Structure formats: structure tokens, C-alpha cells
Amino acid sequence: MRKLIRILFALTVMCILAAVAGCLKPVDEEKDPVRVLTLKGPTGLGMVQLMEANETGSAENKYQFTVCASPDEIKTEILAGRYDIAAVPINLAAALYNKTEGALKIAAVNTLGVLYVLENGQTINSVQDLRGKTIGATGEGSTPEYVLNYILRANGLEPGVDVTVEYYAEHEELAKRLIGGLCDIGMLPQPNVTAVLSKKPEIRIALDLTEEWEKADNTGSALTQGCVVVSKDFAETRKEELKAFLSEYEESTKFANDDPAKTGELSAKFGVIPDAGVAAAAIPKCNICFFAGSEMKTKASGMLSVLYNADPKSIGGKMPGEEFYLG
């Protein structure tokens, strides 16, 4: 009798458990992490606080970050489809949009100009003061050359006629010439500017090309050098995760500007700019920002127009259409 009661009790318990299990909803499988690519240098500085939040488990999404050493490396990853979101130069964003026939969108502008004219002297206080001078520069045949030419022409100066520009292949080469006194005037990007000033304090920032761009008649555009792109598929299928990323990333860019010292430490930790001191000192001059929506479109499209007019190939042969901009 006792044996029968035990059997009946066991069967009752099993039925109850089965009924409860039938009422429970199946647990959703964990989503894949959001794959985010960024570049070493200023383009990636606004990302490092979010990287830290991801590492400590306090980020809203689960991310997989990859820091790429060069635009060519990040281009390869994007074309191979190994990304959901990427921080890239603005010209590369447009070129990839054209090459992939619209498979990505620009979601935000994250870096304005990082180009500065340095002088070992006190003679250059306006763009007009470059008349008759020789200036060293890097980036021939790419964005820096086109930006410099645009600003010179906006001030009535013709490159190669009113101003001689000598181009160097590497930032480090021009930096060494400035430090060594072999070049009196040079245009360099951050963080190379900070590195030069730290080694030779007599050199000064003579012109901020972001400010000079704003003085020109540019219909509200900006010297935009970095942006965030998102794959079209991710934007359409994982909207809530994209929304969360943009919110967290905006906060991360604010953190970078509010706390350069801590951002410098995180930059070194994650390999964005390996020298924490240089990164911290450079941040106030890196124009890290976050613009989305219509303001993003105005700033980015104006910049792309300048690049297109200088060389259509620099943005992939044609201006991106309306679909390029995330709505």
C-alpha cells in the first residue's frame, strides 16, 4: 500500500511539473554581440568610455570592439561584412556607400577637423599671411590636401601660385622637420600636433582649420573628418540595439570631452592612441562630437561636396543620395 502511495505521489508531482513547464515561455536565445569597428587616432577617442562600460558589463548592449590600425584595414572588414557599426573617415564612408551600392548608412558625425597649421615663429595669424610662404603638409591626394586647398581658395589664395605646398609622405617626417627647424610652417593632424608642441614649445598653433572652414561661405557645413556608419541590414533588423548604441555613444563622446585625463588612460588601454599623456593633451583640439539627424546631414553633405568638387574619386565617384543618411 505504501509503495502504491509513493508511486501515485511521484506521478502527481511529475504531472504538476509538466503542466508548469508547459506554461512557461521558452527563454530567448542570447543575441549576437554588436560588432563595432573603430580606428586608431582621433576617430576612435569618443568610443573608449563605451569600450570600458562594455568590459565592465555596464553597457546596455553587448559589444565586440575591434580597433583597426588603418583605413585600409577597416575598409577590408566592412567590405567583408564583418561589422554592424563602424567609426570611419567621412570620405571612406561615402566611398563604401557607393562601392556597396547602399549597403551602409551614416548614423552620426563624430569628429570635426583635426588639422592645424603650426609655425616656428610669429608671422602667421590669418590665412592671408600664408601668401608667398612655403608650407609643409601631409595627405597629398586625400582629404587634408582638399581641405587646405578649399580654405586657401576661400581666402583668395591659389595653391601652388600664391602659396607653395610641399607634401611629405608621413606625419612623423614632417613633425621631425618642424622640431628640427628644417621647416617653419607645417599642417598636421592631431595627435601629431600635440606631440610636436610637447617636444618643441616654441612652435605654436597658428591656424585652426576647423575655425577657418567656419569663416568661409559653407552654407552651414563643417570640416567633418569622422563619422559613424551602420550596416543597412543591422539598422533595419536591430533597431532597438542601434538606438541604444547611439545613446551610449553620445554619452561616451561627452565623457571624452569632459574628462580628457581618464579618456587618455582608456585610450592607451584599448590602443586607440597608445600614449595616454599625448591623448589627454590632444583631446581638447580633436573636436570630438556627436551630431545626428538633420544637423549631421548638413555638416556631412557640405564636406562631401567639397571633396567631390576636388576629386570625385575621393568619395567613390558620386555624391551619396538621401538614403545614405539614417533617418
Explain the overall architecture.
The strands form 2 sheets. Strands 2-1-3-10-4-11 form a 6-stranded mixed beta sheet, with helices on both faces. By secondary structure, the chain is of the alpha/beta class. α7 packs parallel to α8. It has helices spanning 2-23, 42-45, 48-56, 71-79, 90-99, 143-154, 171-179, 192-199, 209-215, 232-237, 239-258, 260-270, 276-282, 293-310; strands spanning 34-39, 63-68, 85-89, 104-112, 115-119, 134-138, 164-168, 185-189, 204-208, 224-231, 288-291. It has 2 domains: 34-113 and 223-324, Periplasmic binding protein-like II (D-Maltodextrin-Binding Protein, domain 2); 115-215, D-Maltodextrin-Binding Protein, domain 2 (3-Layer(aba) Sandwich).
What secondary-structure arrangement, pairings included, does this model have?
Layout: H1 2-23, E1 34-39, H2 42-45, H3 48-56, E2 63-68, H4 71-79, E3 85-89, H5 90-99, E4 104-112, E5 115-119, E6 134-138, H6 143-154, E7 164-168, H7 171-179, E8 185-189, H8 192-199, E9 204-208, H9 209-215, E10 224-231, H10 232-237, H11 239-258, H12 260-270, H13 276-282, E11 288-291, H14 293-310
Parallel strand pairs: 1-2, 1-3, 6-7, 6-8
Antiparallel strand pairs: 3-10, 4-10, 4-11, 5-8, 5-9
Helix pairs in contact: 3-12, 7-8, 11-12, 12-13
In short:
This protein has 327 residues and is α/β, with parallel strands linked by helices.
Span of the ends, CA to CA: 74 Å
- The CATH architecture classification of the largest domain is 3-Layer(aba) Sandwich
- Fraction of residues in H or I helices: 40-55%
- Looking at how many chains there are and whether they match, the oligomeric state comes to single chain
Shape: globular
